[in-house]
Amino acid sequence: MTFVRACGLSELEEDTPKRVELDGTPVSVVLTGGEVFAINDICSHANVSLAEGEVDDCHIECWLHGSRFDLRSGKPDALPATRPVPVYPVKIEGDDVLVSLTQES
Ligand code: FES
């Protein structure tokens, strides 16, 4: 599994998604409840950035139509989205947030 640096841990604010591009893939990095998650930044319902949505209870909500995706699994728990969004393993090393795009979970 190859990890690449997404951002600094100190750059993240609790419940405020940070959008980064990793090898051309848009990823939303989210610090919530003291844990860091990485989820593909494109809503599975339409081509909209999830990083512009709100984070609550380990979910990120799409601002356009309100589907909520579980940051642990990428699964939506509210319509209109029916397909999951890829989520990626995260590792913290010092102040570095590392994400592996090679293995979606
Ligand atoms: S674009 Fe995200 S729920 Fe419709």
UniProtKB/TrEMBL annotation:
<keyword id="KW-0001">2Fe-2S</keyword>
<feature type="domain" description="Rieske">
    <location>
        <begin position="4"/>
        <end position="99"/>
    </location>
</feature>
<protein>
    <submittedName>
        <fullName>Non-heme iron oxygenase ferredoxin subunit</fullName>
    </submittedName>
</protein>
<keyword id="KW-0479">Metal-binding</keyword>
<keyword id="KW-0411">Iron-sulfur</keyword>
<dbReference type="Pfam" id="PF00355">
    <property type="entry name" value="Rieske"/>
</dbReference>
<dbReference type="InterPro" id="IPR036922">
    <property type="entry name" value="Rieske_2Fe-2S_sf"/>
</dbReference>
<keyword id="KW-0408">Iron</keyword>
<dbReference type="InterPro" id="IPR017941">
    <property type="entry name" value="Rieske_2Fe-2S"/>
</dbReference>
